[in-house]
Each structure stands twice: as structure tokens, then as C-alpha cells.
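Entry 14. Two folds queued back to back today. First construct below, sequence then C-alpha cells.
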Amino acid sequence: MDDVRALLILLPDAPLPDPASVEHADALVFVPPDDEEQYGAAAERVTALLELGPPVYLVIPLLESGQARPYLAQTLRQGVYGVASRAPGSVDQLRYLEGVLEELELRLDIQPGLTAMAVGFDHPRALNLMSDALAAMRESSDRMTWIAFNHAEFAETLGVPADSPTVAVASADVVLTAAAFDLPVVYGAPSDAEHAARLGFRGCATDDAADLQRLQTLLSQPESESAENEENS
């Protein structure tokens, strides 16, 4: 299982971090620009990010936008660890993404199936298809490495407070469903990382490199606890 305790989110116009600042990042997650004309510049940034060391994930434009393939055609390259999709609208959309990856891997001489996939389930519609989506992807590939849930975005979609019982139930459902497929879940609010760890989330995403070491420590399971769990299983 991949380590996803501390993920650094990088916006398309943010300054590139230096190697020392990402020492405690389990992965760098690069957000795409909104403007298609900026895809070329994004590709240059991806090349620079690969030099920093941690695995690089490319967040793709929303699948229903029709821009996922054009974006990946310019930015996917040897060395990119995986792609991250936000709120898929259907299982077919995820299958489409897998087909795009297969096509581009062949073109770019990347080992077939090597490019990992991570999926965010922040919208109620996406959350509703989560179990079916994970089952479908498990049957067709081993690309899936982690899933994400941003409780604040989920709450905003519903128009309820982030600490409402409805959001708490959704958070628990995400953790339980991911556990059934042996996948770690990444939380989207580093300020609530302690709460997320108690709920069973295994990682957090942040746009501030100063959070990374704290997140790694907070979301690490001590070796003694891991050994005790194995003995009791």
C-alpha cells in the first residue's frame, strides 16, 4: 500500500518548491490550469517537479469537461507516478480514463498499467457510486492506489456545516468502503488532521509545505501498534 500520509498540493501558478521543503512529502499533486492554452507551460512544470524526488500525481480536468485526454497528452511522461480524478460522474468515466492511460502509455513507451490512479469522492453523486466504481476498477486493473474525501467541499455541496452529523456519516462511509478495497483515504483539511486520523483516514493533503512533517508524524502508525495489530489478527 502506498504511503499517502502527507500530500503536497501544487497550484499551476504557485512557485516551485525546493527539494528541502518537500522532504516529508509522500507525493506531489499538481493541479491543472483552467486555460487549455496553459497546458504547455504546465508540462514544463511537471518536468521540473519530477526532479524534486517525491512521486508526482497529475490532477486532471473534470472528466465530463472533455479536457482530460488533451491535458494528459501534453503532460503525462516517463516518471509521472499517477493521475488523480475529481468527482467522477459514472463508472464509465473512470473506464474512459483508464483507456486514455493505456493509449498514452503505449505512445510514450511507459510500462502498461504503470500509471497509478487516485479518485476523489467529494460530491454526493460520486459518493453514491463509490463502491461500484472501486469494484469495477479492481476487476480491470491494479492502478488504484488511494482515494480522497474533502469533507469541507462535501458539506458546501449539501449546504450544511462541515461538522454536521451528515458529513460525519459520509466520512465514516468513505473510510469503511475504502477499507473493504484495501485502499487508504486522504482527507482534505490539514487543520483537522487529528480528527481525520481518529476517523481512520490515512493521509491529508495540504498546499503548505510547512504542514508536511506534522502530517507524516500524526498519521503514522507506530511500529509497536502495527505489530500488535498483526498479532491480534
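Second construct, same run, same settings:
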Amino acid sequence: MNKYVERVLEETKKKNPNEPEYLQAVEEVLTSIEPVVEKHKEFEQLGILERMVEPERIITFRVSWVDDKGQVQVNRAFRVQYSSLIGPYKGGLRLHPTVNQSIMKFLGFEQIFKNALTGLPIGGGKGGSDFDPKGKSDREIMAFCQAFMTELQRHIGQDVDVPAGDIGTGAREIGYMFGQFKRIRNAYEGGVLTGKGLSYGGSLARTEATGFGLSYFMREMLKANGNQSFAGKTVTISGSGNVAIYACQKVTELGGKVVALSDSNGCIYDENGIDLDLVKEIKEVKRGRIKEYLDVHKDAKYMERTDEDSPIWTIKTDIALPCATQNEVTLNSAKKLVENGVIAVGEGANMPCTKEATEYFLEKGVLVGPAKAANAGGVATSAIEMSQNSMRYYYTFEEVDKKLDGIMTNIFKACKDSAEEYGFGNNYVAGANIAAFSKLSEAMKAQGVV
């Protein structure tokens, strides 16, 4: 290992001993950019890696709110403003009981590379809270979101930091947050939050963007390797939120047959192809569990989750698209997928494959679309939403979708070109890291020691 990379990794581990997700993300990036570091000896003197792995700012705050029983509840919240090298901090707000500083830092770190790959002028950040929206009334969701934004508004702005949605934060939550921001600031700053509703500054195709973008990236990756396509391929997709639902829609439009979706309790398998309209009704309207699919499709199968390995990865498939959460594809799951003949994996969630799983896929010749490239469609469309807000103008769905397709095609090309330039062949995990790091390091050098 390059001595500079090795030293920075060791120092990072010593400084952050209790942050496994963050350390996993840092190690995955730094070990893959060694050839670039070897080529640029000046990086060590300039402290490029040390500055790259250290967030510019971490904000931690308390959120106090009152539930429907009149009881005061207290949650912890974060905003990691990781890098403003190429634009205002940009990244989602996650509302989930697992949220902690390690996960926020890992997501923020990934975000700076993802955003750099889009080619758009946006920096990287991430935030959220350990608040769990599941089982809460609309009034409780509003109470939390207003209390959350009362503090967060001090630290964000359309030219400073632009949050968006993430797990647990959809259009409803963004609406409540935006309303509170507007009330406190006494100004309509449309570009301060993205993922807004269409009635007050949101962008058409934003809801579909991450899933559609993942599908476009995978289409390009398949095409570049044996001129393959989704046509005639069986596809399994974990999750049943926005990313999974719209990846399912676009993959089907591109000729693939999606046979499985999941949630945290288990997965459904329908060998005839997923009835997406039914899934949308269950998840987007009723906010129910995926198991309810069997109430209509009696011939489908439900496989309950009993341990850390989701049963969805035991299903025979050509293409796997993990779109649920981080580290959901373990080494054991990767081995089952390879055993069942998987040819490509596209990361729709953030870092859904463990480091060991990714290495196993690459070792076995499975194509991997890394998250920071493959799921960049969401943030790319958020940047398009910011642009529309600045112009006081709306693009049509078709215009946004065409721009998204072009961005994802260019992201794949950047990953491919960088992987080939540094001798990594079709290892697009390394290609994505190198392409993004090269852009970020140039910006860091140009801006001096700050």
C-alpha cells in the first residue's frame, strides 16, 4: 500500500475508533485511488488526503417536540457539512432510529464524490435524526419537522447548504420543513430544500430520479460489456421505497423482468413479474408492509427475514439492485448471488454492499455499479431543481428526464475512462472513486490551504 495512503488511513482510524461505517467508506475510497496518489507526489505536502477525510463542519443538536399524548419527546440530530469545494453543501436528511454520527459522516463523505461525478456545481453534506416517522401521526411528524427546522435553519441557505430527502424524509416531511423555514426567515428561498412538492417549487421527475438514474447507469454498463441490455434479464430489487419502485418501473420499460422487492420484514417473489401498481398502492398510499402483496397475488411467495441476510439475495437472478440501506449485501449474500448466476449488481442505496461483498463480486467477474455513481440521479435532479428555482422556471418531465439520462450516461463514461486510464479494466468502483477524487483534488489545490 502507498505509504501516504496507509498513514492517513491509520490516523483516521485512531481519530474515529467508534465509527465503522465512516471508516469503511474512507478505506474503500483511499485504497482505490492509490495510483492517482502515486502519480501526484505533491498531494502529501499539500495534505490533500487529510483534508479530504475531515468534514469542514459537524453540527449536532437537540430536537424537542410534543407527541399526541402531550408528552415531550427528545431526539438527536446532525448536519455534516462535509465539503464546499465545488458548490454549496448538498445532501439528504435521514430520519431513522439508526442515525448516528458515523452514518452521517459516511453518507456525507460518499456524497462529495457522488456530487462531483454529476458534473454539477454542488458540494457534499448529509444530515438527519434518530427520530422514527413510522407509526407517527401527521401532527407528530409536523411537530418534529418544525422543531428540527427551527434549529437547522441557522446553518442552511440556497448558497450555503441545500438539504433534501432521504430515508424517512419524503415530500410530506420536506413540506413541513420548508414551511417552517419560510415562516422563520420571512422569505421564500425556494432553492434551500429540494424534493419539494410540485405546487411550491419542486421538480417534475424528482421522485423518480434515483431509480430512473440507476437504471440508466446500469443500461450503459451492460452495453459497454458485451453489448448487453436489460432485455430478457431477471432482476431482483431490494427495498420498496422511491428508489426501488422507480427502478422497478424503468427496468421494466427497458425490457427487464423484476421478480422481487422487499422491506425490512422480508421480501416478495413473483415469478410472473412484480405488479408495480399494487406495490405503489401498498407503500405510497396505505404505507403498509410488502407482505400485503400476497392478499391480491395469491401465487406469489413471501420470504420472511430472520437474520442480517435478506432472503431476497437467495433468489436466482441475472441482475441485483440493492436499493434499501447500507451494508445490506453481506459476503454470504454475495456468494449466494454469484452461485445463482448474477452478472451485474447496481447499488441504488448508499454503500449497500459490504467491502467484502464488493471485493467478492469483482473477484468473480460480476459487474458492479457503485453507489456514488449509480445512484447519483437523485442528487443530480435536485441540482436541476435548484437551477429551476433560481430561474423561476419549470422544465417539463421529459426535459428533466432527458437531462438525467445524459448526466447518468456521462457519469458512466467518467467511471469507465478513469478505470481504463489507471489499469482497472471494468472495475467501475475504482473508476468512480478516481474520477471524483481527481476533480476534488484539483479544486482543493486551486483554492489553497483552507
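Quick look at the second one. The longest strand covers residues 72-83. The mean pLDDT is 96.
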